[in-house]
Amino acid sequence: MPSLDQFAAEKLADLERASLRRALVPTRRSDGIWAERNGRRLLSFSCNDYLGLTQNPALKAAAIAAIERYGVGAGASRLVTGNHPLYAELEARLAAFKGSEAVCVFGSGYLANSGVAQALLGGEDLILIDELAHSSLWTGARLSRAEVQPFRHNDVAHAAELLAQNRSAHRHTLIVTESVFSMDGDRAPLPELAALARKTDAWLMADDAHDLEYGPRPDVPLRIGTLSKALGSYGGYLAASQPVIELMRNRARTLIYSTGLPPGAVAAAIAALDLIEREPELATRPLAKARAFTRLTNLPEAQSAIVPVVMGEASAALEASRLLEDEGFLVVAIRPPTVPAGTARLRLAFSAAHPDTEIERLATVVREKILKH
Ligand SMILES: *Cc1c(COP(=O)(O)O)cnc(C)c1O
User: Fold this and answer.
1) Which pTM value belongs to this model?
2) Is the pLDDT of residue 227 over 90?
């Protein structure tokens, strides 16, 4: 076997032995909550489609109309000829939605997170990052060439200690966290981190990918968002002040050297904003559903639409996932390196569209068959 293939095969065998090998499973989603895989129709608690908008008729119609008008692809980077007319509308709408001065839309949340720190920082600078921050935020931190120091999860005192030790030796400092943590569902202490940032002249960046509370947050000058989760489309963005956004357009490599989003994706995101603005109550529903579930299972009260059920070993998480599949539920096991070793888990994501009776049935199964062991 060529050494390259031998290397890959051995790596895969290691992963298999540790129950960490992953596979792509063809999955057909035809409405917001049901997924067909392996010939079975399952009620999914593993989609980030919090408001059920990926299949919404108004979003589909907007995407189709945009394709008819502007084509399927943007054809070039936004800085060249890919900045089709829908972009300006989306950025203005997002800025109003988040209560920020301006917005820059990137190709995805991952690309936004990979590009922002690099556009702002260099070798003389410092990044403090929550240890549980999303992979894309770590990618961005590393690409920036700044010194990177993790602080313990949501531990403001630890961040303050690291700043006291290191701040003065660096030009600029960026503090990076998630407003809602993607695998734990808990919230960052943003007011406290903002106060710390103010005191030490650091810049605070929060990733709002899973945050369904959209209002202004003047104490967080850099806010990342995605069009790919609650908004049901595809793409990512930074909400910030006008000069910061203008700098992104000039310096962020993941914006400049990547093709603009397809017009259909941008149009669908605009239609999603229309819908949420007309019906703001919609965005409050996933949290209410998650709280019903945590009440019924005696788990700590949900702080967001995401509820973790930590199993420990990867094999235990896989087994719990299979058990739920037998009951008609799709809850994908989350394993290292997505989460720290020894904390493999079920991650439940609640949608506005989940029927209450099904949440009750899921809670019974989790309580009686999973938490009891
Ligand atoms: C999903 C996710 C991203 C990436 O967003 P995409 O638009 O899917 O690329 C970034 N940050 C967090 C916290 C996420 O969960």
Assistant:
1) 0.96
2) yes
